Amino acid sequence: MTERSPIIVAPSLLAADFARLGDEIASISRAPWLHLDVMDGHFVPNISFGPPVIAALRKHTDAKFDVHLMIDPVDPYLEATAKAGADHITVHVENAPHVHRTLQTIRALGCRPGIAICPATPPEALSQVLDLVDIILVMTVNPGFGGQSFLESQLPKIRTLARMIKDSGRDIVLAVDGGIDPTTAPRVVEAGARMLVAGSAIFGKPDRDAAIHALEGPFKEDSA
């Protein structure tokens, strides 16, 4: 019997009640990571929040702040995001023209660097940055809004990136974001994902601990 790699569930704050964010964070105390989507209404068609809100939330939890910057330009906001309390900063390969420099800057700021990839972008676009990232985030919906349906077309991409990570020999967390629920979670984990970002599947439930367990529980068992 061999133990499967632990699966990280990161509740997405985008699905929380913004009028009571402190209480919402308290309701997901079992989650080791908290996913924060920063949107600018330019790179994606929605506006969420920025470094001041991240800084205000930092004192409410010890969870790792997994910050996903969906903004353009991104480089001018890296330092402010790090200072606000981010532990991880993920940027998009689609809007970072000098992505090597961007990822190096994130690490120099004391954060774990991540790279996100949109549904229409091929996995090979990340081949030249595998030595610089700790996290790869596969968008399994088109970014900008919560509550969208999972895109089946992204399963082969997850499998390809899982192979690329294995071949790199690096310990890179392969994450997925979009349409993750108890039905889709086992499928993306089977494809190679190690971290699940989920919004409405957690914050849309009255018992958030049970909702998190429903996503992570099946993958904690030993397998032959």
UniProtKB/TrEMBL annotation:
SUPFAM superfamilies attached to this UniProt entry: Ribulose-phoshate binding barrel (SSF51366)
In this protein, the active site sits at 37, 177
Q: What catalytic activity is recorded?
A: D-ribulose 5-phosphate = D-xylulose 5-phosphate
Q: Which UniProt keywords apply?
A: Carbohydrate metabolism, Isomerase, Metal-binding
Q: Main EC class of this protein?
A: isomerase
Q: Where does this protein act, in terms of pathway?
A: Carbohydrate degradation
One Pfam family name from the record?
Ribul_P_3_epim
Q: What does this protein do?
A: Catalyzes the reversible epimerization of D-ribulose 5-phosphate to D-xylulose 5-phosphate.
Question: Can you say what this protein is called?
Answer: Ribulose-phosphate 3-epimerase
As recorded in Swiss-Prot or TrEMBL, the protein's gene is named rpe
